[in-house]
Structures are given as structure tokens and as C-alpha cells.
């Protein structure tokens, strides 16, 4: 691994950083090199692990990975910020970072879908932590209904654990390993071979840390569209911009699948914001920031960028992005609506033409 001492202070990292007004990576690295102290500052809790600095570093320094390692050392010492500690405790107790009781997460499906203990299935639909939010639960149910319409043989769990992606991102390796062991035991119990996820955070850790065969919902729905297993009933005449999730895009290279789903919907005009694909601006939720009150919010800037291209809808493929960007729209009082790709497809498939 390339060391921080290879840094040539070019400032590509700090100028690219999604949270550059809340932390300055170049200065922190310079201080580390000059002082010989540990690579640490409280500012590093603000990192969203968006991976831009690491991808763009001309010296190949794995900056994001080193930030997570630094967080891990601090957590081992017991010096954890209150909001991060509360997030970790909530995941341990309730299997979600929001402090919402397990009953809310258990009931997201409203009895609509088959459970994994009720017969054979090809895919497990893993809903993720976001379903404790009513809006995200609705997206998950619509995803399930679209899978049924496409003839996909899937089941769900009666009770899901947390995938642990953001636990690992804040540096709590011990808890992450525990969550992984518990989830793998559950998957083995029910003979899970293939997993469909709604959250890119779940996708990232299931693929890269668990080694599972995992699909983002957009991949499965695109295949169904291409094979004509999904039929459209309603034309949606709208100008739509797509926001790339860091964990779907930069981490795992899935840029085109959500866009192809949108392009397939009759009437949609897909437009690109200035920063897109590998250059996309982070929404600000990653690395534990979904539950933290950070003064700088890149989601506000992202809404401005959607306005520049006159988008009527800002489409996302991540529950955390949906939460952050929808809140930003309210703050900005912007004339754009944030929708998941699943919601737009659902409206075209099940909606009634006016």
C-alpha cells in the first residue's frame, strides 16, 4: 500500500472532496508528514467515504482506506463521537442506524411477499436499513411488486440484520465482523444463493466483503425490460436527471443500468448534470453521515446542479441518497422532485394513462 508520505501536496484530494468545506485532506496529510504524529483529526469523521480523493490521487495513495483505518484506531481507543456511538448502538440493538425499533423494520412488506421459510426461491430480496423510513419502505414494496410482475422468483426474510457497510466505513471492524457472521448464518440457513438489494451500501458490502452473488434492483429490472417481461402502460413525459450513488458507481462501476431503465420508460428525457458517473457529487450520507448533523451538506449543491439542467425529476438508485436529496429540496424550496428509479418505473408499469 502506498504511504501518505508519497503525497506531493498537489491538492487534488482537497479540491475534489465532497466535504471540502468541512475537512481539508491536503492539510491533514501535510501535518502528518511534518509532525510524525498519528494521521488523525476530528475532521475525518466528516468523510463520507465517497472515494473521489482515492480515485483521483496521482500518486495512488489509498486515502479513503487510510481514513477508515484511522477511524478504526480511534474507535479502538474508545474516543468515539456521541453521534457515531449512538449509530453503532442502534445498529446493535435495532439493526438500523436510525434508532427505530425492530418492529418497524419487520413490517416494511405489509404481508405482500413470500418469506424465505415458505418454499424454494431463486433470489432473496434484501430490503436494507432504510425501510424503517415510510418513504423507503414504499420504494421497497414497489420493487417487490415489479419483481413479481417480471416473474422473478424471490423471497424475503422475516427479520433482516444490518449489512454492516457503514459500520465498516466508520471503522468499527469488530461489530462489522459480528454482523457479517450473523447474516451469513442466516443466508446459509435458508440456502440463499443470489441476493437482490435496493441499497448500493448493501450491494457494496455483500459483493466485496461477503463474496455473495448480489444484484442491484436496477440490474434485475433492466434485464426484465430487455426480455419484455415488464410492459409499460403509462407515458411519463418528464425531464429527468440521474444522480449516481458513490457505492453503486465509484465503488462498483454500475453507472449505466439505472440510466437504461430510465431510458426505457416511455416519455422520459434523460439529461446529465455536469458532474456525473465517476465525477458525481456525493449526497453526503456515506461513512456514517446519514445520521450526523454536519454543517456542510453537499446535497444542497446537488439540487442546484439539477436545477441548472432544468430537471423536473432527480432520479436516484439509493435509499440514503433519496433521504438526503429530498431533505435538500425542502431546504432549498427547489422546483424538482426526487424519486427512486423504482418509483418512476412503477408509475409507468402500473399507472393509469390520463
From TrEMBL:
GO CC terms, sorted: plasma membrane
InterPro entries on file: 4Fe4S_Fe-S-bd, 4Fe4S_Fe_S_CS, Cys_rich_dom, HdrC_iron-sulfur_subunit, Helical_ferredxn
Domain of life: Archaea
Pfam families: CCG, Fer4_8
Domain Cysteine-rich as annotated: residue spans: 124-207, 240-325
One MF term in the entry's GO annotations: metal ion binding
4Fe-4S ferredoxin-type domain location: 4-61
Entry keywords, A to Z: 4Fe-4S, Iron, Iron-sulfur, Metal-binding, Oxidoreductase
Stored SUPFAM superfamilies: alpha-helical ferredoxin
Family designation: Belongs to the HdrC family.
Protein name: Iron-sulfur binding reductase
Amino acid at each position: 500500500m502506498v504511504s501518505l508520505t508519497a503525497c506531493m501536496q498537489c491538492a487534488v484530494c482537497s479540491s475534489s472532496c465532497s466535504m471540502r468545506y468541512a475537512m481539508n485532506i491536503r492539510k491533514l496529510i501535510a501535518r502528518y508528514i511534518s509532525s510524525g504524529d498519528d494521521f488523525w483529526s476530528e475532521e475525518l469523521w466528516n468523510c463520507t467515504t465517497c472515494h473521489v480523493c482515492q480515485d483521483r490521487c496521482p500518486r495512488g495513495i489509498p486515502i479513503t482506506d487510510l481514513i477508515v483505518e484511522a477511524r478504526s484506531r480511534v474507535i479502538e481507543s474508545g474516543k468515539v463521537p456521541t453521534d457515531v456511538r449512538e449509530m453503532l448502538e442502534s445498529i446493535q440493538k435495532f439493526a438500523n442506524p436510525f434508532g427505530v425499533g425492530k418492529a418497524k423494520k419487520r413490517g416494511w412488506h405489509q404481508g405482500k411477499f413470500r418469506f424465505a421459510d415458505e418454499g424454494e426461491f431463486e433470489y432473496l430480496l434484501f430490503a436494507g436499513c432504510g425501510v424503517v423510513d415510510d418513504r423507503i419502505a414504499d420504494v421497497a414494496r414497489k420493487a417487490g411488486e415489479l419483481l413479481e410482475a417480471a416473474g422473478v422468483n424471490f423471497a424475503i426474510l422475516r427479520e433482516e440484520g444490518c449489512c454492516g457497510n457503514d459500520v465498516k466505513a466508520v471503522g468499527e471492524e469488530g461489530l462489522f465482523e459480528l454482523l457479517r457472521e450473523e447474516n451469513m448464518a442466516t443466508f446459509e440457513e435458508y440456502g440463499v444463493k443470489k441476493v437482490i438489494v435496493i441499497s448500493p451500501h448493501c450491494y457494496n458490502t455483500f459483493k466485496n466483503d461477503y463474496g455473495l452473488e448480489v444484484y442491484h434492483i436496477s440490474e434485475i429490472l433492466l434485464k426484465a425490460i430487455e426480455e419484455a417481461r415488464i410492459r409499460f402502460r403509462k407515458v411519463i413525459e418528464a425531464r429527468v436527471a440521474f444522480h449516481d450513488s458513490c457505492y453503486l458507481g465509484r465503488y462498483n462501476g454500475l453507472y449505466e443500468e439505472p440510466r437504461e431503465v430510465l431510458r426505457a420508460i416511455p416519455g422520459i428525457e434523460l439529461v446529465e448534470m455536469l458532474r456525473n458517473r465517476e465525477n458525481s457529487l456525493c449526497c453526503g450520507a456515506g461513512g456514517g453521515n446519514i445520521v450526523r448533523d454536519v454543517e456542510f451538506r453537499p446535497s444542497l449543491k446537488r439540487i442546484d446542479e439539477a436545477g441548472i439542467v432544468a430537471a423536473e425529476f432527480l432520479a436516484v438508485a439509493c435509499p440514503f441518497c433519496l433521504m438526503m436529496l429530498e431533505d435538500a429540496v425542502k431546504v432549498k424550496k427547489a422546483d424538482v422532485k426526487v424519486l427512486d428509479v423504482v418509483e418512476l418505473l412503477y408509475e409507468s408499469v402500473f399507472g393509469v394513462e390520463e
